[in-house]
């Protein structure tokens, strides 16, 4: 078979490991040929691609980002998009199937195309770990590790000056990165989109820590909605796809803590540093296993399905299951972490 690989949506560490394992598995096990599609769905629609050989993917597992480039192009919104045009383009480019690696938006497009007769399977990728039907997605562990390291550093400088330190991390709709990195770094308060917490409660936690002669660490997800507000802070305009560009909750929280407590407070927004760099060992292994499974799904002609992690096993799941809402942080997990807030 001649198979196209594309990466779409936001980048994250582990994408290249998927590409590597799929290509090597396909060449060795099935005698397949591979095409790397540039910039996600745009490249598929416009026929912009490169040949991928064993040499092209050698050593990719440890490399962050994506060698294919990515974009947020939607396969149905592009002027030359839609299933008929895509099928014709695949015929002209001699492509038998496509492996789409991406998050909710990418997989929703893949599901719609599969329903319309396009031979496509998915690989789940989201740094926020918010896709249902899979326990974890690659990129998440790396983001948590980067954020934890940054928070460890913030705590040492905070202790030196008896300051409260606020760390803003990624998390548009869910707080998995904030929860895991905050717990790992021993944060004294963690604020996530799924839970409303009053500024009075946050300040109480900060004051409890300060009263013991310690410097508080507050972790907040970018999509956290302050109590009394209707939406997350978005002071940076809009994304190209029209979504509000989140960011600024760390600044807002810093001002509120200082005003309410009088404690000197500083904030750091980690932003895209969480997306960059080389993947952790966990993410390299998970991405590699996803790539192998996706290639097997192609040969099963399991269109409209994706690879998923269930416990320790990689399984086939229907994209419909993965797209049935976001995987939010359960209240029980937040209550578990909350036990140590202010301690």
Task: Give a quick summary of the entry.
With 343 residues, this protein is α/β, with parallel strands linked by helices. Helix content is 40%, strand content 17%.
- Low-confidence residue ranges: none
Quantity of strands, as a count:
11
Enumerate the strands of the largest sheet in spatial order, edge to edge or round the barrel: 3-2-1-4-5
Looking at the structure, what is the overall shape?
elongated
Number of domains: 2
CATH architecture of the largest domain: 3-Layer(aba) Sandwich
The CATH topology of the largest domain is Rossmann fold
Provide the structure class: alpha/beta
Helicity, as a percent range: 40-55%
Query: How many helical stretches?
Result: 12
Main β sheet profile:
5 strands, mixed
User: What does the average pLDDT come to?
Assistant: 95
Helix-strand string: EHEHEHHEHEHEHEHEHEHEEHH
The radius of gyration computed from the alpha-carbon positions, rounded to a whole number of angstroms, is 22 Å
Q: What is the C-level CATH assignment of the largest domain? A: Alpha Beta
Distance between the termini: 58 Å
Q: Which range does the strand content fall in?
A: 15-25%
Description:
- 40% of the residues lie in helices and 17% in strands.
- With 343 residues, the protein is of the alpha/beta class.
- The chain has 2 domains: 181 residues, Rossmann fold (3-Layer(aba) Sandwich); 132 residues, Phosphofructokinase domain (Rossmann fold, 3-Layer(aba) Sandwich), CATH 3.40.50.
- α1 packs across α10, α6 crosses α7 and α8 packs across α9.
- The chain is elongated.
- The N and C termini lie far apart (58 Å).
- The relative contact order is 0.17.
- The mean pLDDT is 95.
- Homodimer or homotetramer.
